[in-house]
Amino acid sequence: MDDLSTPVPPPGCPAHHSGARVPLYGPEFAADPQAYYAYLRHYGPTAPVELAPGVEATLVTDYATALQLLQDSASFRKDARRWRALGEGKVPPDSPVAPVLAYRPNAMFSDGAEHLRLRQAITDSMAKVDPRKVSQATARVSDFLISQFGARGSADLLGDYAKQLPLFVFNELFGVPADIGDRVVFGIAGMFDGVNAEKAMGVLFTAVGELVALKRSRPGDDVTTWLMQHPAQLTDEEMVHQLALLMVGGNEPLRNLIGNTLHRLLTHDAYAHQGGLIDEAIDDTLWENPPMSNLAPHYPVADMEFGGTRLQAGDLLLVSFAAANTGPALTAARQAGSNRAHLAWSAGPHACPSKEPARQITVTAIENLLNKLPDVELAVPADSLTWRPGPFNRGLATLPARFTPVDVARRSSAAAPADTSARQEPAAATDRKTERGGMWSQFLNWLTR
Q1: Same domain, yes or no: 239 and 312
Q2: What are the counts of helices (DSSP H) followed by strands (DSSP E) for the chain?
Q3: What is the mean pLDDT of residues 297-315?
Q4: Rounded percentage of the chain residues whose pLDDT exceeds 70
Q5: What contacts 14, CB < 8 A, 6 or more positions away?
Q6: How far apart are the first and last CA of the chain?
Q7: Region annotation Disordered: residue ranges (predicted)?
Q8: Which of 155, 279, 414, 439 has the fewest CB atoms within 10 Å, i.e. the most exposed one?
């Protein structure tokens, strides 16, 4: 065989001369993941990768093979207690990927009847969310965030906008009061920013536990209450873990989807400031730059051959949504008009249960931003932007922008939410309040001033 026909690892890849597993972390991978996926495809439908130092996995890069994995709940399970390497002590206890992959008693890591019970409670509760309330909540939060930087004429559309908007919208939909909401925002941001992630996780779970206790005594018109009142009769512990899953699992993908779509709109002339093309820009982003690039951990129940790779029971498999979406086999289908057949929302019994609200929040957030800042543009060259490293997500570190300064006024009280439970605080919370308050408290004060 001609040596030129065999792909070589991308420049800077540690596997270049060693034949080692291909690392999906570090600045080289973050800068050009598609070069890595193109190389990984030469292994076949599956490829050997390393998620972090010492953490090995098999990555599914082929669309059809990914669908087979996602839909075969008999041969592959989600319960991370099956993870053989973790059970054998081969995964470093301080590994940065452990918090994402480690077992928790929630719908993401359950199988069979237990998964169906938890999943049904989540989907039924989310189905009660009024789309009008989602749009109104998103517009209010968008106005508030723009009001914080609009007069400056410049902003980091990631840190100042896309990162914070999903947290605030979720707080409102879940009926989170000010003091608890401040700690939810702190906890989720800390977990993904990698700044004392263990402490951040503790703060988040404590805050969500207080939210559950509050809603047991003072139910409201919100997702937390609906989940609590579901016929599945979730215990307090189950409530905490399902709510944390929804809040954490919903925030990071939504943050990246908003940011990646804004990036696409600001760097591709075909979309520039044409509001009618926002839906198209979102679809193109989900195909080519999905917010979660590699995830959906699964474990084979027995030794088997799958996608050309010999697997042992309990080996870790991940789906590369980014590679599967951009594989050569998908090009023809996409050109034929199947514009929403991508895997960005996953597929099978564990597919995203909130893709419609997520899309609605993204559309409203971007439309409102472009309406308020019609001349917004990148403040730096596009090729100077950097992407956050890591194997799972795909998101920019910053998105600096400039625009003509604006003054954004609070929306009229007619648009305020009918349910005021998110603004009510238990007596214990009042004792902890400080003059400074957190961003969620500031938002609630802004709404009522």
Answers
A1: no
A2: 18, 11
A3: 97
A4: 83
A5: 20, 23
A6: 73
A7: 412-435
A8: 414
Q: Where do the H-state alpha helices sit in 88-151? A: 98-101, 112-127, 131-149
Alpha-carbon distance of 126 to 397, in angstroms, equals 30
Alpha carbons 399 and 154: distance in angstroms, whole number: 11
C-alpha gyration radius of the chain: 22
Question: pLDDT at residue 397 above 80?
Answer: yes
**Do residues 279 and 325 share a domain?**
no
| CATH (domain of 227) | 1.10.630.10
Q: Is 383 part of any domain?
A: yes
The count of domains in the chain is 2
Helical spans, DSSP H, in 319-432:
321-325, 328-335, 355-372, 427-432
Question: Same structural domain for residues 135 and 15?
Answer: no
- Given a cut of 60, whether residue 433 has pLDDT beyond it is no
To the nearest 10 degrees (0 to 180), the angle between helices 197-217 and 178-193 is 150
User: Which residue range is the domain that position 354 belongs to?
Assistant: 104-292+348-407+438-448
- Looking at per-residue pLDDT, the higher value among 433 and 266 belongs to 266
CB contact set of 338 (below 8 Å; sequence gap of 6+) = none
Q: What is the pTM of this model?
A: 0.88
pLDDT at 81 over 90: yes
Whether residue 372 contacts residue 146, with contact meaning beta carbons closer than 8 Å, is answered with: yes
For residues 298 and 412, which has the higher predicted lDDT (pLDDT)? 298
115 shares its domain with 1: no
Q: Are residues 322 and 219 in the same domain?
A: no
Amino acid at 325: N
Q: pLDDT digit string (tens) for 225-275?
A: 999 999 999 999 999 999 999 988 888 899 999 999 999 999 988 776 554
The neighbouring-strand residues paired with 299 are 77
Do residue 64 and residue 177 come from a single domain? Answer: no
193 shares a domain with 139: yes
